[in-house]
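Run log, item B.
One chain of 369 residues. Sequence copied directly from the ordering sheet:
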Amino acid sequence: MTVDVTEIEKRINDSYELPNSVVDVVPHPLVTVRTYTYQHRDFIRQCLDGVLMQKTTFPFEFIIGEDFSTDGTREIVFEYAQRYPDVIRVITADYNVGGEANVIRCRRRTRGKYIALCDGDDYWTDPLKLQKQVDFLEAHPECGLVHTNCDVLYVAENKIVHSFCKFWGNRQIHYKDQGQLFYMLTEGPYPIKNSTIVFRASLYDTIQKQLDEIRGQFLMGDLAVWLEMSRLAKFHYIDEACAVYRVLPESVSRSRSVVKQLRFTLSAEEMRVYFVKKYRTDMPMPLKRRYNQALILYKTFVPNYIDRYPLIQPGVIERFFYKIHHPSTRFLVRLWFRLLFIKDYGIRYAVGKLMKRVRAMIHLQLNRS
């Protein structure tokens, strides 16, 4: 559900900052670290400790957007704010303002030349993470964003994949220019995890108008930021795992609900199509296939969904499946295809788990050798 701009502004105006001495103690922070948290009771201490352990030669401030959690997260954040009043600034309200308002209210209080992010359910593991990234940005003015490798923790399975980018074959992530990076971001998944990045605040300010134009239209907000930034500045990748990214059973990007998962996938592909239409002259073939598949699969469950974009140069089979899911098609026919998909989804899920296990075994053997 999207929230209109007027309501978002009201929620921001209703927000307030807990008393602290950060502005007096750190009048000119080089970096602002931002954490957005809601219902992260089991994870938030590790997140906060990972930021507070950073060893730097420069001053930084730590802004926490606490969105009226009811599971104990709020009390933990307030406790840390009292213990570290010269570092932590807590922005909150007396009700849940939602993710978008939470991000904006923290952004407007940011003072650093650089911005680092760490989600409330993730955490940093390298005490020199900030120092390494800021050193590179200071030495390379053409670079707008630095991200690192990370470990990925699958909470439900209690399994961790070390050096995620290497695990997926991205041993060295580099490119010739901004144009090539933009192509990489639109044509397929690019391994940037939110909690591994540091970027220039000025670069974010430059793209703010473009981001405001699509506010609330897509479920995957981070990708839009990377796409806009990639047109204007270079990205740099540090091949060191400096953070842990948690994969929760239920989140915006991952769900036990097939419908929710398919909706998120479709929204991500819709965003890529939007940016390709806006900035590119050609539509990548991989994106055509992924978008068409995502649209058809989602309409299997939600046939009345109004397409943001029509099928892109569909083949005969794609047109056939799309027509099957049209609302005018008989209910029993659509139901049969839906059940067929559920069966297929279950098979693909089992195969996917098997392949993950095989890849993990190979990765383990490579590390031992």
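Observations after the first pass:
- Strands lie at 16-17, 31-37, 60-66, 88-92, 114-117, 123-124, 143-154, 159-161, 197-200, 234-247.
- Confidence is low (pLDDT under 50) at residues 168-172.
Flagged for discussion on Thursday.
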